[in-house]
Each structure stands twice: as structure tokens, then as C-alpha cells.
Amino acid sequence: MADSQIHVALAGNPNCGKTTLFNLITGANGYVGNWPGVTVEKKEAKLLSDKNVTITDLPGIYSLSPYSPEEQCSRDYLMSGEPDVVVQVVDATNLERNLYLALQVIETGLPVVVALNMADLVEKNGDKIDTDKLSKKLGCPVMMISALKNKGIKELFEQVKKSAASKGQVPEHKFDSSIEDVLDHIENNLPASVPAKKRRYYAVKLFERDADACKLINLTKEKAARVEQLVAQCEQDCDDDAESIITGERYGVIAHIIDECMTKAPAKMSTSEKIDRVVTNRILGLPIFVVIMFCVYYIAVSTLGGTVTDFTNDQLFGTDGWYVLGQGRDAYDAAVEAAGDNADSVDPAQYGPYVPGITTVVHDALVAGGTEDGGLVDSLVCDGIVGGLGAIFGFVPQMFLLFVMLSFLEDCGYMARVAFIMDRVFRRFGLSGKSFIPMLVSSGCGVPGVMATKTIENEKDRRMTVMTTTFIPCGAKLPIIALLMGSIIGDSSTTAAWISPLFYFLGVFAVIASGLMLKKTKLFAGRPTPFVMELPAYHFPAIRSWALHVWERCWAFIKKAGTVIFASTVVVWFLSNFGSYNGSFGFLPAMDGIPEEFMDYSVLAMLGNLVAWIFAPLGFSTWQATALTVSGLVAKENVVATAGSLLSVADAGETDPSLWTAFAGMFPTMGACVAFGAFNLLCAPCFAAIGTIRNQMDSGKWTAIAIGYECAFAWVIGLFINQFYNLLVLGQFGIWTIVAIVLLVAMLFQIFRPMPKHAWTDEDETNTASAAVSA
Amino acid sequence: MKTLGDVKVGESSTIVKLHGEGALRRHLMDLGLIKGTSFKVVKVAPLGDPVEINVRGYELSIRKEEAAVVEVQ
Fold this sequence. Notes:
Chain B: Keywords: Iron. Chain B: Residues 2-73 form the Ferrous iron transporter FeoA-like domain. Chain B: Pfam families: FeoA. Chain B: This is Fe(2+) transport protein A. The structure holds two protein chains of two kinds. Chain A is α/β, with parallel strands linked by helices. Chain A is 59% helix and 8% strand. In chain A, strand 13 (578-581) and strand 14 (584-587) form a beta hairpin. Chain A is elongated, with a radius of gyration of 31 Å. Residues 33-39 and 759-775 of chain A have low confidence and may be disordered. By secondary structure, chain B is of the alpha+beta class.
């Protein structure tokens, strides 16, 4: 590290404005990395005004205790020797609790600059803070800033550079003299290798019996015994345990400091309290929540977002093309109507400022360039690449809108209230209130749904929500449902209206049953996650942070879409267009004498035949059914289009009776048909969603567990439907009927048995991965 | 033993002792719920759990189940 380089660590409580400050001073060019081993985000970036200063944004924490991964990571980083100075961001409107962490950071012996954020709000409340006095009491510089209004930032970093050159401070604050005596004794027992300014930090940690610190210091046996004796004696004298004593002393010191440095205006009701009187009201809380969520969903998924996504899919990327500002659309539609069967001959460009779809443009350019129409290159580029990209990028506008709204709700403080309101419901299924948002969003699209799990801090809860949220039927699964309804009942709209909700109930049931079952496996076992959460004061989010929040999430998806998901799409294109016909292997559509249904000869058909036996107990063992499932992986709505081409009912939609008949003909019984539908709705989601799951889980193993569980669960449900239909309606009984009954009993047992008491350790994960999948 | 979960909405009380162990106990302490701390139960969620308390000048949401480890006056 060069001399001129300064490493600054940014520490502070959650919601203290740390991230706003980080975005402001770095210009939001930070790169997000993960701490090794755990999914805790650490951001690093250069200071905008001085490239020699590197800022590391630590996770928001309340303490430097050894219990939570965030806190452990933060203190490991602070003690690593890398940071030259710590900027301790303190929410000045909540000085008492924020100073609790500040004291601990000061005790590390690193040079600290305390940044009193939201100073403007303190003034507005009529309170006064004497920063000079506070600075003396804490033994480090204290600066007033407002990250939101960009005030005091320049002065703060002038001070930071000065402090970085200093050697750090020995903490000023002192505990009760009896405790100080014990700490002095412990300090004397520390090995000489511990530097002077860090001795107090380790003395306090040893007093607290902090396991990590004890290991690090590694006292000799006699000294360890001596320290233990001192602590035990002190505990006896105070009639309390060591951790409580230290916590009590810290809050005691803080109470003194606040008495001397702060004059409080008489308490009045804050704006947050006023808002909360309505928003989390016992009676109005739930209705208000429903209305807000309905608005978010309605705008992002049903109306605006849906329109934009359809536009991207069909017109921008597809073959439909579009009219600028819609001019000429009506005239064109009228002309198509008039032309009747010759609709294809109507040139849309004659009726207004027409822009053809990207597929059309690329196709025309290729043909003009001498590529064979419908040939290998044309098919790869238009169907494989452009089509694949279109299917994925179609989701971006919807996601963007959704994230604009969800990020706002999150940044302004409402999400914490949602968790407060909904916790009771979700705790029953082993989840917390925060799982509701992803489920709701998933009914529109699973991709943003999975991404919305980011707000769930608890790792187990987040993983379980990711695993179950795509069970909820998304918008792209609706055509499958319509096709099924048509095939079963022969009507997709009126009399069958009750079938569609049934599939939603199936999704909800899958979530609940999975929650109840998984919670009892070793993967998710353990005591229920505590739900002790601060309800932060409401505030209007900083536009910059808000925009950045949205951008980060969309960008993460686009990056994934451009790589993994895109590659998978091309692979599926290859599998369905290549194969051997008449003894030669190659690009099928270009072969001589190949029938219209060339997919019969594709690699996909061969592979489909290989794995079709898996679905025999579910009643559909043809390769076509398997191929449909695979095509659903690219995008669920593909199932209908692929069914059309496989069954030679070209250009048929999900509402076309000829497709219904042909589709129903694929299955031996109605039970098999419904089993197929249920399997496709519940099994692995599309590549876009799988990619997002991979992103969110940040672990290949967990992605495999999630997808594996979803497929296994879907298979079992399909088995139930087919076998029980055979048994109850057709009166057939076989070996698979027995399997289905056994599985049903096992499932009910797992759902209803009481929570087992596992001797659970975190290291067990690897051994139990398979157990969860088979459960 | 009267616990935080027994305090009625709108009432204030003082913490006598923190029971329980491990991460939850330490987390509650770090949030400032220690012996001698006074607090007020502000409201209960629409479905009856969790409760919201005001402690040390900020709002905290806590399930009744977890509130049971906090002994109050």
C-alpha cells in the first residue's frame, strides 16, 4: 500500500444514512462484492474528490458482537489492519442507540471520525447537540453532516485525511471504577504482543468471554484461569453476567454523555408517529396494505408494465413491428381486416411511420446479405438469438417499474411495517412477514419476485422464499392454464372460470406445504428466526440512492440474461433444430424431404425419449410432453406455441379449439392431462428465473437444491393427480398407486408432525442437502 | 413473572431482567433492552402479534414469543 493511499471504513447502524453518504461521496461507482463464506455485501469505491481514498461500506449493524455474520465481518475488517480510519456515521436523531456502536468502534483503537448525520432534522426538532463537548467526551473528532442535503461532507473528509495520519486514540470513556479495575487486571494479563491502543478492546472482549477474541489472543492456561476468576468474581459482585455488565456500562456512559452534550426540546409527536397511527393501525393497517400492494401490482404487472412487456416481446423484438405514437395503427388494422385471407400481403409501412420488429429487420438484412431464407444462420440468429434475447429483455421494463415502486417502499421505511403487519401470517409457514412481497410479485413474474427476496435479511428465510416463490403461477403460465382448461372442458372462458383459480390455489398450497415441510428438514431447522426489528422513521428516500437501487437490480438481471440465460436459450434452439433424418445429422429444416414436424427427428426428441420414462407414472411418457416441458424452460408461454408446432396445428393459440383437441389427444386420460399441467406449473421456472435464483442464492449448491426440490415436488403432485384419478375415476390400481399413497402419507406426516428437535449445527449443511430434496 | 409481552398497549414499564441466551439475548441487549430501561408498548399489529414498543427514543417491533424473555416490573 502506497503512503498516499488511504483506506476508509464506513460504519454505522442500519438506517443511519450510511448508504446515502456512500453513494454521494463515491458517485455510486462502487463495486459490490461479497464477504467470503457468507452472503454479506461489502461495497468498495474510490472517493470522487480524491482517487487516493478508498471507501469500504460495511453492512449496517447495531453492535460488534460475535453473533451475526454482518457484525463478525465488520469487526474482522476493522481489526484486519487495512482501514486507516473509520467514519462512524451516527443518526443524530437517535443518538443514544447509535452511540452504542460508536463506543465499540472507538474501543478498537483505530482513528475514528464521528459523522453526525441528519443534523438538520435534529435542529428542526428543536434539539441541540454540542459537538465540541461530544468530541471531548468520545476522544475523537465529531462532524455535523447531512448526507441527504450534501452538507458538511467536504469538511468531513478534510478531517478524515488528518485523522488517517494520526495513530489512533485510546478511548476516553470510562466505565464504573470497579469494572475498570477488572479491565486493568485483564489488560495486564494480555500478551505483550498486543499493541497499546488495542489492549482495551481485547480486555473488554475477554471480559465478555467473546469466543473469537479468546481464540485470537490465546492466553496461557494460568492467565486464562486468572482472567476467568476475575470475571466470575465481578459477575458475582454485580449479580449479573459479563455481557450484561458491559452493555449496561456502555449505555450508562452514553446516558452521561447525552446529559452533558444534548439539550432536548420537549417531546412532541413526530411525523413518523403520525403516519404510523394510520398505516399500522390495528383496523386500517391491513386494508391500507392491500391497497398499496394492489396499486404496485396493478401498475407494474397488469397495466403499464404488462403493456410495455408485450410491446417489447411482440413488436420491438418480435415480427409485429410498431407505429411511432400509434399513428396508422387503425388504418393498418382496417386494411388487414379488409384483405381477409390475404392479410400477409398488406404492407404495414404504407399506413404510417412504421418501424418493423427487430426480428424482421435482422431477418431481412440477412436475406438481403445473401443468407438463405429460413436457413441455418437465419434460424439461429432470428429464432435462437433475437428470439431468446427478446424473451428475456421483455421482462426488463416490467422489472424496472416494479423496482421503482418496491425500492421506494423499502427506502422510505414502509417495508419494515409490512413485515410488522404480515409477520403473524407467515410465521405459521416458517417464514416471516417479509416473504409476502416476493410471493405477490411472483404472480406477475417470478424474476422480479425472486429479486424482491433481497429485502429478507435472514438467510434461511430468504432461501426458503426463493425456493417457494415461483410456485405461484406467473403471467406467462396463464396460457398453459387456458390451454388446459380448453382441453379438459372444451371452453377456456365462461363455464371454466373456476378452474383457473384452482391453479392459483395449487400454487398457494405448494408454498404453504413446502414451507411446513422444509422447515422441519435439517436444512431449515433450528430455532425460529427472531423477529426483533427496528421500525425506522419514515423519510423520503434520496433520489440518488433510490435510482441506484433500481439500476443495480435491473443491471444484475440484464448481465445474467446476456450470459447464462442467453446461452441456455441457444442450446434449446440447437436441440430442437438439429437431429438426424434419413441417416444424416444436421440442421433439420434445411434437409431434403423433411416433413413439417421436423422436431420429431431432433436431438430434443431423442433426449425426450430417453427421459420420458420418468413421467410414465404421471401418465405422459411421450417425448412430445417432455419437449414441451423443456421449451417451457425458455419461457413458460412457449409451451403453447411448441404444442402447436409439435401437434401440427400451426399458428394456433391457447384459445383455439383445434389445439385443445389435439393437445388432449396427447394424453391417455384427463388425469394425465391435468398432471402434465400441474407439473409444468410447479416444476423449475424459466431460465430467466433460474438465473435470478442463482444470482440471489449466490451458491450453485443452493440453486441446485431449489430447482431440484421444485421439480421433485412438481413430480410428486403430478403423480398424485394421475394416480388418484386412475384409482378413483377409472378404478385402476397398480404399483404406482401404492407409491402415490405412501408418498401422500409421508407428505402429510411431514406437514403435520411437530417440529423435530434436531441437534443442529451449521456445518451439517452438506450432508443434508440431499435429504431436503427427497423430503 | 411478568414479561414485556404482558404489558398492555399504551402502558409503560421498566425492564427487570433479561432471560434467555445466545444471539437473541445479546441482540436485545445491543438494542438497548437492559436492566433498568423503561419502555412503552405503543401498539400491537393488526393480527395481534408482534407488538411495537418505544425504547430509548426509537420504535422496535418484537414478537410476543421473544418478548417473553424480557422480565418487567
